[in-house]
Here is the input.
Amino acid sequence: ASAQDWQKRSIYQLVTDRFATSDGTSPACDTSKREYCNGTWQGVIGKLDYIQNMGFDAIWISPVVANIEETTADGQAYHGYWTEDQNSLNPHFGTSDDLKLLSTTLHERSMYLMIDVVVNHMAATALPPNLNYSAFAPANFSKSSDFHPFCWITDYSNQTNVEQCWLGDSNVPLADVDTEDPSIVTFLNGWIHDLVQVYGADGIRIDTVKHIRKDFWPNFTASAAVWSIGEVLDGDVQYVSQYTEVLDAVLDYPAFYPLTAAFGNTSGDLSALAQTVQKEQSAYRLGTSMTGSFLENQDNPRFQSFQTDQALVLNAMTWPFVQDGVPILYYGQEQGYTGANDPYNREALWLSGYEEDKPLVIHVRMLNAARKAAVASSGNFLSTQLTFLTTTKNALAVSKPPMLALLSNGGSSSNPSWSVPNAGYKSGETLIDAVSCNTLKADKQGGVSAQSFNGTPKVNSLLYRPIGPCSHSFR
Ligand code: ABC
Ligand code: CA
Here is the structure.
C-alpha cells in the first residue's frame, strides 16, 4: 500500500509476545523478568475484533524473524529486536502459515499489516573476540568482516560513530552490520522484497534508521515497495528532517517530547508542542503528513506512569488523532496501563480482560470515528496541514478542516474555555462535539466559543461536522 493509502488509516501497535495467546488463556507475565510470555500471531488473529471495534484499520506487529534463544542478563528476545537469523521466523510467535493467515485475515477485514524490521544489527551474547559469528544466518552475516569493527556508540553528535559503532551492551551486544558492503546491501534489498511479498505486508516500520547511512534507504524502501515509516529516535526537527528525504515517513519523535511534556503536567507548555509541529511542517519534505504520531511505544514510559489525571490523559491521547500524520496507538494505552520504562511498558494485554467499555477504549473509538468522519467529509482533510488557531501554554485550538480540536492541560479541576474567532466554519453552522456528542453552533463569523468542565471528556472538545448520526460504532 502507498503513502496515500496509509494516510487514511490509523495504526494499532502491538508487541506480539504480549498481546494475545493462541488459545486465549491468560498466563502470568512478569514484565520485570524480560522473558517470553506466550503471545502469538494466532493470538492476534483471535483478537482482531477487539482492535477493529476501536476503529483501527492497520496493525504494526513487533519484529518477526528468529532471534537469539539465550536467556541473557538482559532477558530473552521476546520483543523481537535481537535478530539471529534473517531467513527464519521466530518460532515463539508461530509458523509461517500462521503469519500468512494473520495477513490474509487482516486483508479480509480491509485492514493493513505493518511488520517491524531490523537491518542495522544482529544480536550476540558475547563481545569480540568471543562473539560467535557463525551463529548468524544466512551466510552473509557469518563472519566478523560482515560487521563493522567493534566499538560502542559513545558520541551521538558524531554521525559516523552513530552509524558504524554498536548499540546494545556487554550482555547483548548488537553487532553492527556492514551496510557499506555491496553484497550485504544486495542481500538486504532482496530480503525485504521477499519478506513483504511472502507475508503480504502493506507497510514496514524500520528500526534504528539513524544508525545506517542515509543513502542506504532509498533502494531498501524501493525494494520493499510498500509504505515505510522509520524510527529516527531523536527530538531534533532538523536532524530528523534529513530522513524525510529518504523515507516515506518518520515516527514523530520531535513532537513526542513536547507532547508528553505539555500534557504531563498542568504547568506544561502547549505552545512548545505547537512550535515544534510548525517547524516540522516547513522542514519535512512533504510536511507533517509524512509522520506517524504516537503518545506511547515500547521504548518510553507510558503516559500514565507519570500522569494519571484522566483529563490530561484524554487530552494527550487526542493529539495523535487530530494532527497531520498517521495516528498510532500503542497497545495497552486504551486499558489504562501504567508501565514505566522498558521492560515495564510491555505488559501482557490479556491481563486486562480486553474490556471494551472502559472510558479510554471508548475515547479511542470516538477519536477514530471523528478522524474517519473528517477524512470522509472533505477531500482536503488529508492534504491540508493543520494550523493552530489558539496557542497558549494551557490551551490549543487545532484546526484541520473540517475538524477543530480544543485541547487544554488544565487538568480535572479546571473548566477551560476556548474562543476561536476564525475557525473557518460557515455562519451559524452546527458542529458536533465528538467527545460528548453535544451540538454546538458556529457564530456569525464562523468562529467557535466553547467551554468544558472538570476535565470530563469535553475537555478536548473535538468538533466535527455532522455527516450522520453521532455514533462511535464501526461494525
Ligand atoms: C535492553 C533492556 C533494557 C536495557 C537495555 C540496555 O537493554 O530491555 O531494559 O535498558 C531492543 C529491545 C530493548 C533492549 C534493546 C537493546 O533492544 O526492545 O528492550 O533493551 O538490547 C529501537 C527499538 C527498540 C529496540 C532497538 C534495538 C532499537 O525501538 O525497541 O530495543 O533493535 C537508540 C536507538 C533506537 C533504539 C533505542 C532503544 O536506542 O537510536 O533506534 N530503538 C538518545 C539517542 C537515541 C537512543 C536513545 C535511547 O537515546 O539519541 O539514538 O535510541 O538510548 C531526546 C533526544 C534523543 C535521545 C532521547 C533519549 O532524548 O533528542 O536524541 O535519544 O530528547
Ligand atoms: Ca549501523
